[in-house]
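With this grant's support, the team has encoded backbone shapes as discrete tokens. A representative record is reproduced below.
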Amino acid sequence: ESDTASEISFQFNRHKKTPSIGSHSSDMASVSSVSGSVLSVYSGDFGSVDAQGTVEFALDYDEKNREFQVHVSQCKDLAVVDEKKGRSDPYVKTYLLPDKARMGKRKTSVKKRTVNPIYNEVLRYKIEKMVLLIQKLNLSVWHNDPLGRNSFLGEIEIDLASWDWSNRKLNWYSLKPRSLSAVNGVDHRGVMSLSIKYVPPGSLGKWPKNPPSGEVHIWVKDVKDLLQLRPSGVDSFVKCYVLPDTSKKSYQKTRVIKRDTNPVFNHTIVYDGFHTEDLKDACVELTVWDHEKLTNHFLGGIRLGLGTGLSYGISVDWMDSTQEEVAFWQEMMLAANEWIEGLLPLRSL
């Protein structure tokens, strides 16, 4: 069924009130920072004030340093968030779309008590020019609320493929309301084909066929329609963790498939150490990455679990499975020893 089969144990203390993290690998550290970055794209209050005003900025690409630069100059006539005090504390935030997570956010300092802030700051991205040209720049303005949710004040989006790079002058742009697709994070990242199976302890007869503890089998088949970061395609691989265990023992990955936006992995992973009750609190995280020498770039992922927001009684942000992912996991829980096939869209995690 597969070209590779690896078996590792699902290990953490089920009796502690805090998840056992263990030693983080450098790869998992990057996953954690990516997750926090993506959450910040959508966190905030989008409806409390109407977008208004303008923002002045300029774009440039430094060929020598391979650096994309956003010179944020100032804003004018922004919306007032605190009507009683007649104030806003604005700052500017940027992302490269559609892959918000891969590059992370950049933001200016906060200017207090003004609707006409002056920044004169440069936000920088280390990125190859050919990769930049398939991105869009999302620049948004926010009111900073240290005690609550930041308020959205407006945004502008620019297609960098059609940008006039000879234009290095500061220009004014009208701020627009947040689009519904941006709020909901609707962007196509590809689709993963996979099968999963749960083998309960004691279900296969006598040892050695009978596992002393339960097993979760994950068969990653293929992915279609990945983001194409280079003209030659993408060099992709899949990482797998069973959360909340983020130790090196939990980490597995497929081989790298080069120059293909429709890679076939055909890779099976087996996690043992499962008890049936663990299935309610665990989450299988599968993420797809573009492989490069210096850094791997996040392309999308899925999380298989019940999506309750809780793991062993602790509130966690990664227990956020979509309806499709939850239904897939539930079907596996109800059909012991049977392969459950699925076709799930990749998303920002």
